């Protein structure tokens, strides 16, 4: 596993700065009162395309040679990363080939088209997604960019935590949702390099608790079901991010579907911002373990705000 210095991580941030928003850090005195701690919400729901994934996508493309950029980039994604890679590529005049399962919501397909992403649909299995993406790599010479298991993507995602720590250097911990592992791995790298006492903690639904089980078993586990409202967390860890998570993440807290819904309503009603259910998983974890977090200063990464309201039943 490669190691990264402060300079390395600051360079990543400088590289992508012209293409991203520095998102706000919000607080809620009422939520702090309920949680019995001070929470600083790093709001990536205000990022371009509405999620932190823009950071990793733009960093990955910027690291390609001019020749490779001209050939384009390809990924497979049913949602946020499809949009992130499309808008990042568009801002650099790079072709973006997006493999999307036929079952992906039309609203997400439309968003990708808006950002000039070139969609190829395939049957909704991981095997079909990978096979279709590989064919585009072979035919076009495009570079495959994985949504979460790519070191340049991971480093880009870590810049959200970097901005948080630059403003709030004395946090006791940073809590992030865990899906494919890109956000928490990038966060853990930054927290490890830039702080002495801050912990990195993950939050995950019981229904898709592969990361929790992977830390216990020491190998990448899969999920048997994906029955969770937190649709952005249904993916699994990869060989690039898992070693980082093993080394630098202190713990992962699992939460129930009801706990996620309660946290989601709390953010919507009290903070007056729209966040996706995956983001609420982090607050649900803090509320579940109130004794552990009592009187602490906590950074919480709101991963995104792309909500398909047709799919939500609260």
Indicate the structural class: alpha/beta
Ends distance: 42 Å
- Judging from the principal axes of the Cα atoms, what is the shape? globular
How many domains? The number is 2
Global mean pLDDT = 94
Tell me the major beta sheet: 6 strands, mixed
> What series of H and E elements makes up the topology?
HEHEHHEHEHEHEHHEHEHHEHHHE
Give me the Rg, rounded.
18 Å
Q: Uncertain segments of ≥5 residues (pLDDT<50)?
A: none
Number of helices: 15
Write down how many β-strands occur, each being a DSSP E stretch of 2 or more residues: 10
CATH topology of the largest domain: Rossmann fold
Task: Walk me through the structure.
The chain is α/β, with parallel strands linked by helices and 314 residues long. It has two domains: 206 residues, 3-Layer(aba) Sandwich (Rossmann fold); 97 residues, 3-Layer(aba) Sandwich (Rossmann fold), CATH 3.40.50.1100. Helix content is 46%, strand content 15%. It has 15 helices and ten strands. The strands form two sheets. A six-stranded mixed β-sheet has the order 1-2-10-7-8-9, sandwiched between helices. Helix 3 crosses helix 8, helix 8 packs across helix 10 and helix 10 packs across helix 12. The longest helix has 15 residues. The chain is globular. The N and C termini lie far apart (42 Å).
Looking at this protein, list some descriptive labels.
314 residues; alpha/beta; Rossmann fold; 2 domains; 6-stranded mixed β-sheet
Brief synopsis:
This protein is of the alpha/beta class and 314 residues long.
